[in-house]
Amino acid sequence: MVNVLGLDIGGANTKVAYIRTLEGVIGSVEVFVEYFPVWKNFKGLVGVLGKLREFVGGDFDVVGVTMTAELSDVYRTKREGVEHILGCVFEVFGGVPVFVLRSDVSLVSLEEALVSPLGVASANWVATGWLVGQYFEDCIVIDVGSTSTSIIPVVKGKVVAQGVTDLDKLLYGELVYTGCLRTNLAAIVQAVPIRGAVAGVSSELFALSGDVHLVLGNITGEQYTCETADGKGVMRSDALTRLARLVCADTEMLTEDELIQVAKYVYEKQIQQIFSGLSKVYNRVKDMGVTKISILTAGLGKDFLAKVAAERLGTDSILIMDLGKLLPDKVSLAVPAVGVALMAAKHCEVIEK
Amino acid sequence: MVNVLGLDIGGANTKVAYIRTLEGVIGSVEVFVEYFPVWKNFKGLVGVLGKLREFVGGDFDVVGVTMTAELSDVYRTKREGVEHILGCVFEVFGGVPVFVLRSDVSLVSLEEALVSPLGVASANWVATGWLVGQYFEDCIVIDVGSTSTSIIPVVKGKVVAQGVTDLDKLLYGELVYTGCLRTNLAAIVQAVPIRGAVAGVSSELFALSGDVHLVLGNITGEQYTCETADGKGVMRSDALTRLARLVCADTEMLTEDELIQVAKYVYEKQIQQIFSGLSKVYNRVKDMGVTKISILTAGLGKDFLAKVAAERLGTDSILIMDLGKLLPDKVSLAVPAVGVALMAAKHCEVIEK
């Protein structure tokens, strides 16, 4: 029996999975999530990790770590970010063995991670891909989060992403910076159809993708968990007000129908953005000789973005499934944290043997 | 002799022009600018106006007002914004006659303005067009500010804009939401060329147009007067760091040459955005039978954005001039404030006669 902590330290949320495993099989899982926007107060990270350690309560033999918070603009470079974040991890968890996930799907010690910090930057998608690879042979995971979308190819149970860094992944379609809550609409569309013509949009932060999906009924107010653009509420009328501002208008100047047309247009653009990345990844996987591919959807946008984009692949040889329904309970709340915990558990067992 | 105050109440800056005129001709001009981001503390507007009134010191017979601050997202609708802003103006300047500029190029009393608040919303470009029309018969003004660009056609000395509201102007190319300092790069480009391929960009607020123009030498650090995306400095190295983050990279992963290529690409996109609006306006003016058109450039981006876009009209029949060099000293610092002041002065003289 190995008790493991998995840490996924993101820019806005720090997630911990506490799992008990026997020979690499998950016994029990507990997940804790702490909202902590690192760009607002990066010095508080040690405190947050300490608090999460207390939450967990039980003993653990090993810690697995992955992160994306190093991209936050409080850090001048990723190196600076990785060094600070791993320093905090060491301060809180230094008493037990700590393993850090590299984007080449290996685990290294804290000391080794600090030798080449870029290798462990933004690697949490690897943990997702690895975990899925434990259950599925050939698949593509489409994880549509609040701000961005990860598209992760797995072949013969192994992560076969072409990109290692976020930059690579942006080039190869494996990272698409569109999401279902926090994306600035001005970054999705440069113009929208209004009254038979095309209006350029304001480049301010006036409305977010959460407004589009709230107006279209894709999400509820409770699911709109991020801060809104104007700091106001998450009623449908609030979202319509923000949508109107995208073209410097208000709800006296534009009707609800006109605003719904704008929302539909932005929604369609998001599907296209995700499809564009997905089709690149899909064709690469096909070129590897895979004939039957499962598409696993994850994240808040799994149904109205990931699934819809996947359906556009338009082939009978793919099967679209909801990842959350295939994995053990609670896991879908923090897939990378669980993944890196299980990797660390297996790593320990291998070392012990 | 009429002494007039002109107020241009913007979302980020409140500008006052104090002018003394005789029969519509400007005698002396003083300009005061107060940085006041209305979205951070709209209740402070009365205090700011009071402070500016004290700055001015001298007596005045009449006040002319125009605004754009009503678009700020602290206000639910433009109506709510206009009502609040004019209420503040009344509180501070209610003792003298106040005239408010409408976007149909007329002046109305505070009471009349409140009857149809949308008519006075975001009308400050009208003051610019009207002022220019006092000096030039047929011209197009391209005013490239920190965040957006106004393209204002003047024929036979009259403003002939097709759009009245910001929404109309976005439809007709008379308002282009791209500027030389504060524009989020993610709203200008959705992908950039990197190492022979195309990388999607992050939709976060990682870098601003000011970073592009600082890196390319179009502006100096002193001219980079808005807050930066990461709250850090305005050295060239700071700007390169922010530019790298646009594609989730840093200055260890991308060379300076690669980042300059990205900057040049964004710069070219901005020129295209402005040209796209300008060509619509230009062709409409040509269709009105005007054969010789002057293009007057204004704002911080007058040389490297407005002028470059105008040159792409590629015709001998246009003359490109710097508006600031043609108007009296200091006026170019606050053209709409001076314009609305002079309009109010003339309006008074007409009434007195």
Name the shape of chain A in a single word: globular
How would you characterize the largest beta sheet of chain A?
A: 6 strands, mixed
Helix content of chain A: 25-40%
* Assembly level: homodimer
Mean pLDDT of chain A: 94
Q: What's the helix-strand series of chain A?
A: EEEHEHEEHHEEEHEEEHHHEHEHH
Give the low-confidence spans of chain A: none
Straight-line N-to-C gap of chain A: 13 Å
Computed CA radius of gyration of chain A, to the nearest angstrom: 21 Å
Tally the helices of chain A: what do you get? 11
Sequence of strands across the biggest β-sheet of chain A: 3-2-1-4-5-6
Query: How many E strands of chain A?
Result: 14
- Our estimate of the beta-strand percent of chain A is 15-25%
Classify the secondary structure makeup of chain A into a structural class: alpha/beta
Largest interface chains and counts: A-B, 56 and 56 residues
Helix-strand blueprint:
The structure is a homodimer of 353-residue chains.
Chain A: E1 2-9, E2 13-22, E3 25-35, H1 45-56, E4 62-67, H2 78-93, E5 98-101, E6 107-109, H3 110-115, H4 124-133, E7 139-144, E8 149-155, E9 158-159, H5 166-172, E10 175-176, E11 191-194, E12 197-200, H6 209-215, H7 236-245, H8 256-287, E13 293-298, H9 302-311, E14 318-322, H10 323-326, H11 335-352
Parallel strand pairs in A: 1-4, 4-5, 7-13, 13-14
Antiparallel strand pairs in A: 1-2, 2-3, 5-6, 7-8, 8-9, 8-10, 11-12
